[in-house]
Amino acid sequence: MTTLPAGLIVADASFLIAVAERDPDAARFVPVLDRCEVTAVNFGEVCDKLHQKSGMSAERTTHVFAHVLKVAVKPVELNHARCFPDLKTIDAASKAAQQATGVTVFKSLSLADITCLAFAMCAGNAPVLTGDKHWTTLGPHGLRVVAYDFRDPNLTP
C-alpha cells in the first residue's frame, strides 16, 4: 500500500471532476481535499466539464469546492509558465518512448496538464492527485513531481 504524503496535495481537474461525479475511487480522497490546491486554469476546466455534463454553474462549482470542501484555488504565475519548456521536453521524451514501443495513439500532456504540473514543481515538487494514469509514467523522462492516480487500488489517503 502507498499512502499520500502529508501536507500540500496539488489537485488535477480529473480528480476534482471525479469527486463531483461521486466516483467511488475519488470519494476515498475527500478527506484530503482541505489540503488540496488547484490552479485557476485547472479549476476552470472543472467548471467547464461540470457545466457540460450536468449544467452545474461555475458559481455553484466554486461554492462546493472552494467554500464547502475547502480546496484552495490558486493563480497561475510567471514562475509556473517558466516551467513549461521543461515539461514539454519531458512530454516529448515520453512520446518518443511510446513510439519506440510501437504505440500509435500517444498519451500527451495538454496545456492544462502542464499548468498543473508546473504549479506542483514550483510548490517544491508537491505531489499531484490525478486521474491521468499517464502522468505516473513521466518520472523516468525527468518529472520530479510524484503523480498519484486516485484510481490506484493500492493508494490510500
Concise structural overview:
This protein has 157 residues and is of the alpha/beta class. The protein has helices at 13-20, 24-27, 40-54, 58-68, 78-81, 84-100, 111-122, and strands spanning 2-3, 9-11, 36-39, 72-74, 128-130, 147-149, 155-156.
Describe this structure in words.
Helix content is 45%, strand content 13%. With 157 residues, the protein is of the alpha/beta class. It has a single domain, classed as Rossmann fold (3-Layer(aba) Sandwich), CATH 3.40.50. The strands form two sheets. The protein has a five-stranded parallel sheet with strand order 4-3-2-5-6. The chain is globular. The N and C termini lie close together (11 Å).
Write the layout of secondary structure elements.
Layout lengths: L1 E2 L5 E3 L1 H8 L3 H4 L8 E4 H15 L3 H11 L3 E3 L3 H4 L2 H17 L10 H12 L5 E3 L16 E3 L5 E2 L1
Parallel strand pairs: 1-7, 2-3, 2-5, 3-4, 5-6
Helix pairs in contact: 1-3
CATH topology: Rossmann fold
SS-based class: alpha/beta
| Secondary-structure arrangement, i.e. CATH architecture | 3-Layer(aba) Sandwich
Task: Tell me the name of the CATH class.
Answer: Alpha Beta
Distance between the termini: 11 Å
Rounded mean pLDDT score: 96
The rounded Rg comes to 15 Å
Number of helices: 7
- What does the main sheet amount to? 5 strands, parallel
Please indicate the count of domains. Answer: 1
Work out the helicity level: 40-55%
CATH superfamily, please? 5'-nuclease
Total number of β-strand segments? Answer: 7
In spatial order, strands of the major sheet run 4-3-2-5-6
Give the overall silhouette. Answer: globular
Elements, N to C (H/E): EEHHEHHEHHHEEE
